[in-house]
Amino acid sequence: MKHIVIIGNGISGITAARHIRKRAGHKITVISGESDYFFSRTALMYVYMGHMKWDHLKPYEDWFWEKNNINLVNAWVNEIDFKQKKLNFSLGQSGMFYDELVIATGSVYNKFGWEGQDLKGVQGLVSKQDLIELEKNTAYTKKAVIVGGGLIGVELAEMLRTRNIEVTFLVREQAFWNNVLPLPEARMITEHIRSHGVDLRINTQLDKILPDEHGRVKAIITKDGEKIDCELVGLCAGVRPNIDFLKDSELETDYGVLVNEFFETNVPNVYAIGDCAQQRKAIGLRKPVEAVWYTGRIMGETLAETLTGNRTAYQPGNWFNSAKFFDIEYQTYGWVWANPRPGEQHFYWQHKTELKAITISYDTESMKFLGINTFGIRMRQEVFDLWLNEERKIDYVLENLRHANFDPEFYDTHEAEIFNTFKSNLQEA
Amino acid sequence: MSRIEHNMALTGEAPRSLNLQQKLASLLGMAGLVILLLASLNLSFPNKVLWLSISLLSIIAGIVWFAAASYTGKHPGIKNDGVWFKSMTNRGYLAWLAGIGLTSFYIILYFFPEYLGLRQEGENTGLVALFDPLSNFLSGNPASQWFVYGTLYTIAITAFGVKFMWKYRHNRYEKLRTISVMFFQTAFAFLIPELMARLNGEGFQLPYYDLKNIWPLNYYNFEQYRVDEFISAGNIGLALLLFGVASIFIITPILTYKYGKRWYCSWVCGCGGLAETAGDPYRHLSDKSLFAWKVERWVVHSVLVFVVVMTTAVIYSYLGDDPSKYWLTRNSFLIGVGVFLTLLFAGIWYFKREELEKDARYGAIGYLAIILSLIGFHYLSGSDLFLFNAENLRQSYGFLIGAIFSGVIGTGFYPIFGNRVWCRFGCPMAAILGLQQRLFSKFRITTNGGQCISCGNCSTYCEMGIDVRAYAQKGENIVRASCVGCGICSAVCPRGVLKLENGPSQGRVKSQESVTSDNANLLDYLRKN
Description:
The structure holds two protein chains of two kinds. Chain A is an alpha/beta fold. Chain A has helices spanning 11-23, 44-48, 63-67, 128-137, 151-162, 183-195, 293-307, 381-389, 394-399, 401-404, 415-428; strands at 3-7, 27-32, 70-74, 77-81, 86-89, 96-97, 100-103, 107-109, 122-123, 143-147, 166-170, 198-201, 206-211, 217-222, 227-229, 232-235, 239-241, 257-259, 270-272, 277-279, 320-325, 328-334, 344-350, 357-363, 369-375. In chain A, strand 13 (206-211) and strand 14 (217-222) form a beta hairpin. The model of chain A has no long low-confidence stretch (mean pLDDT 96). Chain B folds into three domains: 1-74 and 112-196, no CATH class; 290-426, no CATH class; 442-528, Alpha-Beta Plaits, CATH 3.30.70.20. Chain B has a two-stranded antiparallel sheet with strand order 1-2. The longest helix of chain B has 29 residues, at 290-318. Chain B starts with 12 loop residues before the first helix and ends with a helix. The chains are: A alpha/beta, B mainly alpha. At the A-B interface, helix 1, helix 2, helix 4, helix 7 and strand 21 of A face helix 1, helix 8, helix 20, strand 2 and helix 23 of B.
């Protein structure tokens, strides 16, 4: 019986633990200083907004771990002795030996060296501690500035608006998330965010953050020299692997912990999964570091197979993802780039009055379907996964789009209109 | 413990407070209630028509105005901001006040109607008297405490129904469903029975019959006085009686097979109607623990057995022994019940045994054995059927289940236990529909591959306490006996994962893993495709 130690009780670490337990009787220890029990990080915002309580974030009841013989340890690891296979903890707890080590420490938010980035009232939102800090920081906050137009930024904006805090949202691109979304979609979302009372500034970047006499944030200055008063600055310009405690060790790291497709690091018996792992060779068109919920799950499952005797390579399948921007749900299947790559083309449809839109990316010559973004319309992953694998053409996808619809019953359907728009676009072209 | 686990005392003022219009609207609605309270205290209003109209209209206008003040000017979409911060919706002081007020009302209504002004002899006084003009207008009879209750109940469903539709105005499923419960309450539960009473006269007496109120929810439907009245009312009465029998044995199974129990529980039923409208602000209070699920299964099915035993005993008690007088005798009835239950059990066992959990199998065998041995014991010893006098059984059921469980606890404690306590733990109709839904139905909630982020909104807002997330994160369909198909899990899901569907029975239940051993095989799923 091996002792498998997992650092990090997020989605990848916990998925690995559960699947190891299902497959084998090894001793499993999960270490986290962040929280006693696994919780859904993606739902932190709902606690702040009063939709849920902390306990609702826990997908398993507290008795689950003992019943399944998974040891949970509340501690921060500050050092790993790879030679002795030993972990050292920061709070003077005695060390722990392992046979196999899984590093699943997730992400921390980016700080890009801005002046004043460590002032009180300046923070991101990734961990439970961040949420607690946000509660404290927003106690008397009237105005906030959010830096970075991505998924956490828009969530933070929505959170703060529920407390009637004035929000200025600095976005570097010419529309919200335009580095990922094609411009028409990015513009629609930008307008929607503004309609919720958020002062969203495009083409605007942070220069520095100014303190008051108590070391708290007082205002920020943009690169255009504009001063904006605020009591809170949300740093939402992306996340990076949480691996600072591994620097200067023999573990090979770059942006994240470098791993092969089996999540093996350069040190034997040491693996890394989840947000903190960086693939040495990118898989398909995916980024080498992916901070996405479901890839964390697949990594955890895959590694569990390897650790229980069935060495398995990471195969995340077709790309998909989803998000919600205030009231607009977004889903994506396959690849739709903000700007079509050479040989690619976008077909865009937007509803005349409602907040619904789709973009389909396809190969200009072969008409092969490459991917779809949908806004305000739910789609079935299963169907798009199949169509992508079957390499269907765009006209097939549009003809059969109703089979992919996943909206609730009695909702308006738009497939016919979408199809006709596409046909008339083709004729015009 | 940190503050996020407890309260957010320092922040959150904004979502917690009511705006001016909401306050004024509450005042208006409360004023309407105060008139009713004054009437209960025997203040005699000079012009009953006027004061009753003022009271009821203030209540309706107050609720609708409150809804308007809550939701106009806001975007269509999910409106759960601050739900867990508000005293009224987080078991705070206001919630306890409301709960105690409601339970007190139910206790008076069921057990002390004289305090509401009901008089057996002579004219009504107090609150009941205030409703006399309306009752006279509809049925031609003076009001009873049940008329007062029915009127207020209908107002609650319609006014809070308007609020609910406003809240979910982006969701057509929710809107249609709410129009449906508002219609069935107003027409079938309230107006039609009152108007039918106008037909009664010399030699023609129909029992008060809410046609959508099906046995065993309507546990008294086959009691002697009602059956006598049905039969004495000629063809119409006979048709109604046959409709009552067909409702449970023919109509219900067909509709549940096609659409799941939601056709009844969240589209038609009055208890469900109140839970979905007036009770909606409390849906998140349901207990989601595995323990609560175990309790639920034993309690609700025990109530079902109780109502079967009670109804059998009651019908048996008024049947005769002589087959030449009437074809249905005590013997043939008892044997019929025994044969029916045995066949039902055998059918489920033969076709669906694999789908039953271990405790469900024990339960099914146990319940059948108890009923059959009680019938056998009766024949062998000649004692009372089911050991108790039928009238005692009927009275105990009416008191324990009909009044205490469904009313006092089920509705009175909305603000504490959530809005579907009765439907989940107590309703025998829900138990029957649930068995059908679990075993023989096309309905399921489909999950969307790997899109689930385990956020927990679905589980939190499931009024039946189903841990929806446990299924969604596995990519497994939700086929649960208790699901009433309200559709809120699908509505609150931020990632478009859940969809209520009627589809082919094949592959409806994808996996038989129990909830605790989460078998998230996203990997298998991806390989398969």
